[in-house]
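Archive maintenance. Older records in this collection stored only the sequence; we are now back-filling the structure field for every entry so that each record is complete. The fields below show one back-filled record exactly as it appears after the update. Entries are processed alphabetically, and PF03932 family protein CutC is next in the queue.

ARCHIVE ENTRY
Title: PF03932 family protein CutC
Organism field: Curtobacterium luteum
Length field: 248
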Amino acid sequence: MTTASVALEIAVTSPAGAVVAREHGADRVELCVGLELGGLTPSQALVETVHETGIPAHALVRCRPGGFVHDRGELELMEREVRTVLRSGAAGVVVGALRPDRTLDVDALRRFVDAARSVSAVAEVTLHRAVDHTADPVRAAAALHDLGFTRVLTSGGASTAVAGAGTITRMVDAAGSVQVMAGAGVTPADVPALVATGAAAVHLSAKRRASGSAHAGVPMGGSDDGSAHFVTDAEVVAAARRAVDAVG
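Back-filled structure field:
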């Protein structure tokens, strides 16, 4: 594995975050909103504005927080969201769906892939960390080529990518031409261990709480504790870039 072949992806929630990621060495961004909820589908305007920053953006398509077993209405909505974000300038989409038995919902995933490629034949399609909730992430990774996926984001089924490094190595072997991207709880110091798995990319949020953005007012929802929102930390992105470049 050569250093040049390892991509650095940063999860961002705003055009400003995309600019920070671009200026400090990220190869691409994953764009979402509600990062504290695990990420949700960004708006059309947000996708369009991030596209204008010039960095390739892969839009998360996830219509709600919680688990990855979706009903018919949710699947239809996300299928439409796939087409919308790609038409708005996203370079790819990040999707996922499971069956109640903790296997991949292959019918839903095929619908997402077909929707993406109906907009752009070269749209990249990533399976998100729903894979880490499957009964067997290695077996799931092995199925992705036939489903038309470009890559999979994974922690190896563990709480952090470093903890799941052994499984990530096995997923790399099983995935064949599908790229495996290591992510979850990643810091720049973790990069060498994750590159050693054979992963094609490293993913991190590089986030910090925005100063002065907390509130002590009436809660705006059940999960609103008044904490500040997250922004992309330039120093963390730059440190991750240096770590990727130093490996090998």
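Update note: The first helix runs from residue 15 to 23. The CA atoms of residues 28 and 197 lie 21 Å apart.
Entry marked complete.
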